[in-house]
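Schema walk-through. Below, the input block comes first and the output block second. Nothing else is stored per chain. Lengths vary across the set, and this one has 155 residues.
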Amino acid sequence: MAWRMRPPRAFEDLVVGERRQSAVREVSAEEILDFARKWDPQWFHADAGAARESVFGELVASGIHVLAIWRQLDHQINGDIDFVCGVGFDELRLKRALRAGDRVFARSEIVALRPSSSRPDRGTAIFAYALLAEAGEEIVTFRSINLVHRRPPPE
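--- output ---
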């Protein structure tokens, strides 16, 4: 979802408990290899043959790749929010390896909203995120702390 203008949903539009889920996306061996060779060339990410000798017994995506896939899917479900920026992740857990052929989706839930006490043009939104395999197994989970633009007060 590409926006030519700022996304339409401001801090005031967000609701604690709001849940969203992306479409399913398949991860290929070629994608895992291409990403690893460019960004995380550990042998069990970048060489399918050598990966068979790893503790995983097969090619697996790097944790950075898992987060990149999550980010891509998150834009499907939360790309309409007028974020200022993300400021941190808490409780990040890589719970299972992401393998070639896995079909995954992202899930988000808004768990807290707090207007800024020092900057009236923004608020903090905390999301609980997960990237899951199609069968429901969690691959990565974390909380994301984000700043979101507020609407100007009426004059």
